[in-house]
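Let's study today's protein:

:::
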Amino acid sequence: MEKFWIEFNEIFKQHGDAAARSGKRISFGTHHIRRGYLRRDFHLLRGGGLLRFEHGQVVRERRFKLGSPYNLKAKHIRALIDDWLARRHSRSYLENKLSVWRQFCAWINKPNLVPGTAEVMSYPNYRHRSQVAVIDKTWSGRGIDVPGKLREIASSDARVALVLELMLTFSLRLKEASLLRPHAADQGAYLDVCRGTKGRRRRVHPIATAEEREVLERAKALVADRTACLVPRDKTYKQWQNHVYYVLTRHGISHKQIGASTHGLRHQGLNRLYEQITGVRSPVRGGRPGEVDRATDRFARQQVAETAGHGKRSVSSAYLGGVLHGRQPSAAIPNPPSASDDGEEDDGADDDDDDEARQLVAALRDRISSDEAIS
């Protein structure tokens, strides 16, 4: 094996299993992705496969003579960044790559080699891809009769239909709903969502309505084993995911057929939550400026973000569209369909405003609970 890759493997063996901030051991999946990012980029650096803009044209970058990972310099990092910008990757992708390389540089005692995200976003070649939804991705927005379609799917595969109902009812991702252990997750007043979450961020979802309780009880009845999840024991998660997509395609639901996916049910649930709180449709579903005051809109968006498992209120725009108070959402380039979830993007809001919103979200949650509480 070449000396370069021997040194690379030694670095990764020593540091590669540690999380960026906490130092805790990362999952195998994260380890695999991180290693893949670095290997691919080093191959491109040394093999001449990088792209860059030159006089408005995309050209191929020269190859770099890099005999050791320890010889990494600022010019190499800049060449990588130029390549990502030339390929027009999303902001969330750029943030992930910068984070991985920032950590690698710390491993080789060059912690200041990678520029900050804000600096990269200010580069002339950076082309912003808006994270604000301009297309209604909910199932109903794609012309689907949601209750009728779920009944149709249940007639051929009850387990798939139940996972889809969990996604809709609790605004879960497909992986979260599939890996949910109904018995263990049921904490009485709330649902404990901890398996399959993005970034392994644990969250709770109040069980405040009869519909939520009924769906969860059916999930518990389907999974008799208290430690089991919704994925059948004879399937891996990947096999189960492919099966779900196959069943949906048979019932006419796919990006190719009608521009809809399983993730549309998560959008459906989060838009429904916004409408329950504000009393009006979200911007992406036809809401108009002036229909809701600024404070209520902010509170509702904070609730949507927390229900979705995100920490930033601004992420709600990826599901709801732009704000309703005062002006129409600005035009944006819609992101292409993706199997991944929406990226997080800060809207520049004051931290004090975010804290105020979080404090009042509890009051809104109580209001919804009192209106639709289980007797």
Remarks:
- The two ends are 68 Å apart (CA to CA).
- The first strand starts at residue 51 and ends at 54.
- The longest helix spans residues 351-372.
- Residues 265-372 form one domain.
